Each structure stands twice: as structure tokens, then as C-alpha cells.
Amino acid sequence: MTSFPDNFLWGASTSAFQIEGGYMEGGKGLATTDMGTGGPDVADNKVASDHFHHWKEDVDLMAELGMKVYRMGFSWSRIMPDTTGIPNAEGLEFYDQLINYLLEKGIQPFVTLYHFECPMAPVEEFGGWASRKMIDLYLKYAEICFKHFKGRIKMWATVNEQLIATSSGRLNGNTEKDPKQYAKVLYQMSYHVSLAEHKAISLLREIDSEATIGPVCAIQVIYPRTCKPEDILAAEYAEEMMQYYLLDMSVYGKYPPYFESYLKKHGLYPHTEEDDAVCLQDSKPDFIGINYYFSGCVEAREDGPEYGIFPPWAIGDYKMCENPHVLKTEWMANGIDPKGLMAGLRKTYHRYRLPMIICENGMAYSETLGEDHKIHDTYRIDYLTQHILQVKEAVDEGYPVFGYCPWSFIDVVSSHQGFSKRYGLIYIDRTEKDVKECKRYKKDSFYWYQNVIKNNGL
């Protein structure tokens, strides 16, 4: 037995656009994710896992699992479908029912305000996050949520994985054709997201001083390909360009020196205003949410930046490469590396000295329901076991990790791989194009994790 602290929060995670469905139902407005994030033969999120019509059944399954916390997301465009700032009463009613039932079942809601799903109305009207107008719109959305759910939601996440949210044009409406200009807009968007995040943190302090709030970061544990000094530095550069510039801004309200100098050197530094520094440094998050699936490996770059490739992987004094020392699978192409989670937790705490909660950690696999309506996912159980052991080691060493939420509670529509790529503890019976009835079937990992929670450890 590996026993965790008595107050440890065992839970599971999803996001709104990946499970809800209910496309254009209940007054919901269009979002970037409604435009389709995969190819023509890949499932979109118009039905997704049909949580919009199965929410009560899903909460009953969470209660059966024994979850202490549910890390979920609100659909911004369901609550605020346009740019008027007027909330959609039907959207709030849907979340009222969900939140109230979670609380009735003894499950703490941990809500992400912005998880990739950017409303289309501001994108079409003024370019979304490329404009400072988006900051005010996000703040109005946050204010609606903070006031409406005060006393019921006591844990908030500002933004999920800003690295991806600002890098993927499909998610944020960055339509620049010139690769370098695309990167410049990316960092301008990122700067505006960070400003909005700090304003939201300060706003929550005013509205509900008992609630806590923090960012959720996809931590980047990067190894050098060799022990050459150039590769060692390349790994440090990569972590700065893919993680620390975001968390430094979230926690300290300023960019790390290397990142700032790099952007200025290459003409990518965002436009700022004189009063921004006060806003950025006037608030600090209560915790950091940690997403971790795999580590990365780099070598020194001898040429300049590669514009036109997914920016986080290509802009910087490093070049991504394969790590021969980790096990690769169909969907885990970067390899499975449990030790990387421990390394990432240590580095994150040493730099920020804030409590941490694991918000996403999971094993993707292509799965088909058997004739017995069962999924024998021993591979997922093994993956989660190895990573939970690393969390336990971190806790035993004194690192303040206060919760663990695997990705994902149920199978979700992947951001661009549909339902071919499944992470859930519960199988959703649908294919890419045939949504069927979206029946729920508990996988072997569901029962395994149920015992983990019951025993408060492995």
C-alpha cells in the first residue's frame, strides 16, 4: 500500500468542448472548436460524448468511482455567446444543474474558465486574443462566473495549456499566412491572455476571497540528446520557450530574461502598455495545475528559427529529436516516461514555491468494445500506476502535490484525432461518424481506480 495524505484530492478530468456536445443547443454560441479541429473523417465536437444530455448519468458514475474532485470546464460560448457581455440564462442553468448535482454527490467542482474553446463572435469581430478587447470580454465572462457560482465553486483554473491555446490557429483564429507574422501574433495573443489571467485573479479576490485560482500548464520536461554543453543549454532554452515563459508570467508577471531577449532579437516581442506591469505583478495564483503525458528531447540548433512549423517545437535555439530511452506507442509518440513527472514537479516547485495539483495525466489507446461490452485496458492501469508512484514519491519528499486527476474521466473527442484516440476510464460507444446512443461502459481501469481512491493509494 502507498497511502496518500487523508485530504488528498482524487479526481478525474474533462473539458467542455471535448465532452459536452449540445451544439447550438440551450442558447450556446459558436466557438472556434465548433469549426472542427480534425479532418473530414474525424469526429467533431457537435455531439462529442453527449455529456449535455448525459450529465446526470455521468455524475452518478463519478460518485460510483468515488471522485473527490471533478476537474471540468465551462464552455465560454455557452455562458456568453456573443460580445455584448450579457450572459445566456440557459447556459447558466445547465451549469447550475451540473454543479448542484456534483455538490449533492459530495464532489468538489474544479472549473477551468478557458480550455481551448474560444468564442467565434470576438474572433470575427476584432480578431479575438490578437486584440486587447478580448481581455475585457474574458474579464466580463469571469465576473459572471465568479458571482453566479460564488460559494459553490471554490477552485478555478484561469487558462488550460496556454502554450497550445495560443499556438494553434484553429483554436484561436490566428489566420496569418506569413509564418513569421503568425509567430508574432501568437506572442501578442499570449501576452493578452496573461494580462487577462492576472485581471481575473485580482477580480476573484474581490468577489470571493475564499475561492482559489491558478493556471494549468502542460509542463515540458526536456532532456538533452547528449551531454555536450550545447545540448544541455538547448534543453534549458526549450523549457524556457515552452513552459517557463508562461509560468513566469502567471506567477511573477514578467518574462524570463532569455525568452524576452530572444523575442526582441527576432522581432517577435509583443506590444505592451505602460500600466500593464502593475496589473501583471499585482496578483499571484494560489496553485499551479500540472498536465503531463510525456517528456521531450532536444539537441542544439545550428541554423535559425523554423517558421511555418508548429511554433513551440521550432522557434528557439533547440531542435526536437527522439529519445531512444523511452517506450513509444501508437498515440504516445514521444514515449512514456513516468520519471519525467517527478522531474517536472520538482523543477516547477523549486521555481515557483506553490502547491500543485495534477490536472491531466493519461494513456491514449485505440479501443473497440468487445462482445462482452468490456475494455481490458491493462496498459492504462500500468501507465497510471507508474505515474501515481511518482506523485507519491514527490509527496513523500515534501513537495506540496494536493491532488491527482487522470485524463480523462470518460472518452472524449480528441482535439484533432476524434474518437480513434481514447483516454477515458469509461468507454463511450460511438465511432467517428456514427454517434449511436453514446452509451457508457466502465473499463477495467475504472474499477482499478475506484480501489485506488477507496484505499487512498495503490
Describe the structure.
- Keywords: Glycosidase, Hydrolase.
- It comes from Schaedlerella arabinosiphila.
- One of its GO terms (molecular function) is beta-glucosidase activity.
- This protein is globular.
- The mean pLDDT is 95.
- By secondary structure, it is of the alpha/beta class.
- The protein has helices at residues 16-19, 51-65, 76-79, 89-104, 120-126, 133-148, 162-167, 169-172, 179-207, 229-252, 257-265, 276-280, 311-314, 338-352, 378-396, 444-455, and strands at 9-13, 69-73, 108-114, 155-160, 212-218, 222-224, 288-291, 296-300, 318-320, 356-360, 401-404, 426-429, 439-442.
- It has an eight-stranded parallel barrel, surrounded by five helices. The protein has a three-stranded mixed β-sheet with strand order 6-8-9, covered by helices on one side. A two-stranded antiparallel ribbon has the order 12-13.
- Helix content is 41%, strand content 14%.
- β10 (356-360), α15 (378-396) and β11 form a beta-alpha-beta unit.
